[in-house]
Amino acid sequence: MGRFAPDELRSHFASNLSCFPVTHATDDFEFDRDGYTDHLELLSGFRPAAITAPGGTGEFFSLRLDEVAEVLRAAVAVAPEHSAVLGSAGYGTSTAIALARDAEDAGADGLFLLPPYLTEFDQRGLIEHVKAVCAATSLGVLVYHRDRARFTVDSVTELAEACPNFIAFKDGIGDIDLMAKLSARLGDRLALIDGMPTAEINAAAYLAVGCQTYSSAVFNFVPEWAIGFHDAVTSGDGAEVSRRLNSFVIPLLAIRDRRPGYAVSIIKAGMRAVGRSAGPTRLPLVDLLPDEYDEVASLVQAVAA
After folding, report:
1. Measured distance CA(255)–CA(197) in Å, rounded
2. Which bin fits 153, alpha (ψ -120 to 50), beta or left (φ > 0)?
């Protein structure tokens, strides 16, 4: 058991933004532990509610399983008391269970459950998959609604009734209708989280339908800006939200949307632009083209100024 019991973790998500740090790589794509821990120590000063290690922005899908374990242990070693650390699990059910148990052994405070890999499945298979992972750990589990893992309201309700440690649900598809229905049906039984790539673009819409918070990838390289945006959204300062969207988020999305996978690549480009390179993006994702990087650097420098 980590430092946060499942019920504590559920309420803790709303205390601030959560961060999905990039996973630093050397030039030959090995894990750069020193770069990674230095980065987490810097981010810790901005008091993220949770740090997910490695998560989607952290290229979980491109890491060896031993690297997933190493990244998590590096995060646990340096995370401050105010930031919960979530381990990551995914792939098939048996692998996800093994990763969940390892996350608990490593001292994680919770578990981020990514979608199963590749194969097709129906709602019953998806429900039983989540139940099996929840039963394998005492950690609070955050389930990711993304790609093939598309849940219905009834499926989430069944899981909430059956699994006491299923405490949070994160939408990475853009299904605001689903989140509104879950909020109406389940109240505060689950922490509902906007997990869209570059979540700032629709943060206000998600908060309006009952989501308590969102996760920020740009927190990696412009944490002050990310917190300022969060403050503007949660305080209802529509003019400031619009100004920040138009000056930074919308131009950034225009670059991100040029290629699949750029949602991760653009965050690593932002890291490089602020002088804290996290190394190359791991295949099968690719880095931005040189002219695209220059565009990102100009946007980031304007925000920093």
Report:
1. 13
2. alpha
Burial 151-168 (b: 16+ CB within 10 A, else e): bebebbbbbbeebebbbb
Residues in the chain: 305
Domain enclosing residue 177, as ranges: 6-236
pTM above 0.85, yes or no: yes
CATH of residue 214's domain is 3.20.20.70
Structure tokens at 129: 């998959």
Rounded CA gap, 264 and 110, in Å? 23
Nearest C-alpha neighbor of 292 from the set 261, 283, 304, 276: 261
Model confidence pLDDT, tens digit, residues 147-169: 999 999 999 999 999 999 999 99
Q: At what angle do helices 262-273 and 290-304 cross, to 10 degrees?
A: 60
**Within 10 A of 2 (CB to CB), how many other CB atoms are there?**
24
Is 99 within the bounds of a domain?
yes
In sequence order, which residues have a C-beta less than 8 Å from that of residue 32 and are 6 or more positions away?
A: 24, 25, 26, 278, 279
- pLDDT band of residue 7 (cuts 50, 70, 90) is very high
pLDDT of 1 reads 62
Q: Are 45 and 32 in contact (CB under 8 A)?
A: no
**Inside any domain, residue 129:** yes
